[in-house]
Amino acid sequence: MPTTTASAVLGVKPLGFPWETSDPFLFCAYHDDAYPKSNGKLGVLPAALAGREIGQDFSRKDGWSMYHGDSVPGFPAHPHRGFETVTIVRKGLIDHSDSLGATARFGQGDVQWLTAGQGVVHSEMFPLLDANQDNPLELFQIWLNLPARSKMAPPHFTMLWSGQIPRKVDTDAAGRKTEVAVIAGALEGAGKPLAPPPDSWAAQPQSDVAIWTVTMEPGARWTLPAAGGDGTQRRLYFFKGASVQVAGRDVQPASVIELQADAQVELVNGDGIGEFLLLQGKPVGEPVVQYGPFVMNTQAEIMQTMQDYRRTQFGGWPWPDSAPVHGTDPARFARHPGGREERPDPVSGKIAA
Predict the structure, then answer these.
(1) pLDDT tens column, 7-18
(2) 214: part of which helix (H) or strand (E)?
(3) Is domain 25-164+292-313 annotated with CATH 2.60.120.10?
(4) 17-59 residue pLDDT tens
(5) In 10 A of CB 286, how many CB atoms?
(6) Which three-class secondary structure state does DSSP give residue 53?
(7) Is this structure's pTM higher than 0.90?
(8) Is the pLDDT score of 198 beyond 60?
(9) 8 in helix, strand or coil?
(10) How far is CA 147 from CA 8, 132, 190, 210, in A?
């Protein structure tokens, strides 16, 4: 029988920046920015930029950062090779553009899954659409490693719209609810799992990769089911809430909890809404050599990557500037390489192609 005792908790650490991860995950950043009202041009009012080191601003001054943007916050064009980015947007919008020719505006629970593979350049800008009130943004960006056999796979652009993402709501004996959004992996009762990109480690049957967000009402009880794979690593990130008991152990917020993956683990939320991110998977188990936005298996491959990027720019940048934004219409959309378009209906969630 799966254990449910405190021994299921292997360790608890405070969250840092970025969040500590384990193989097959390389990186997890949580951005929670209370952006002010805009300048009417999707950017920040000049007065609000005072005292900031524009282009390198991770300060969280006044509760937000510019990152590498100068007027519109965000991350202008930058390259990747050898891994995948999974971007989960909980509040606000992201404007994406890339060297494949794809563009998108997504948010409000949408997820973008980008296989960098042999090389892609993309920008991720955070347009401030409202000139009359604040523009909050909340998102996770997760880097998922690719095995050596897939590091030079063709780049692949995938959108997982909020209305497509499987969800499960469990109610405990006291009527308190827990909702789980299943971005990757399978959860009994949540419906058919989504298909990861074809070259992803998550697409391998043995990988046991799961990416879930969990939201618990005050006082709710919920049991995290045991993972299925031998050797799976599992971490639970408690990023919002007052307190939680994990397998009987009291845990304070802003903690990462390493769990025994083959254990059922009961969570008992404290006062207030409790919010968690679950990352689990079987390790790729290969050497990791990282240089900035490139992740390969050897130093020689990193040197080759740098040479390739200098020579080819990974296909070049087809947009007129390094930080494109997509206008004032808040409607979400994606234009895929080759021109196919998707637009989720804001009410029904159905996708118009």
Answers:
(1) 899 999 999 999
(2) strand 210-216
(3) yes
(4) 999 999 999 999 999 999 999 999 999 999 999 989 888 899 9
(5) 15
(6) coil
(7) yes
(8) yes
(9) helix
(10) 29, 47, 28, 17
HSE, CB side, 13 Å, CA atoms: give it for residue 347: 0
Place of tokens 């292997």: 10
Tell me the per-residue pLDDT of 231-278, one tens digit each, with 9 for 90 and over.
999 999 999 999 999 999 999 999 999 999 999 999 999 999 999 999
**Which 3 state secondary structure label does DSSP give 315?**
helix
For residue 302, give the H/E element and its range.
helix 299-312
CA end-to-end span of the chain, whole Å? Answer: 47
Which CATH superfamily hosts domain 1-15+166-282? Jelly Rolls (2.60.120.10)
Angle (CA) 275-277-280 rounded to 5° is 150
Kind plus residue range of the DSSP H or E element containing 67: none
Report the amino acid identity of residue 264.
Q
Instruction: Tell me how far CA of residue 353 lies from CA of 101, 111, 197, 340, 343, in angstroms.
Output: 17, 18, 19, 7, 6
Q: Which amino acid is at 277?
A: L
Residue appearing with tokens 């890339």: 98
Q: Could you state, in order of their start, the residue ranges of all structural domains in the chain?
A: 1-15+166-282, 25-164+292-313
The residue written with tokens 């404290």 in the block is 270
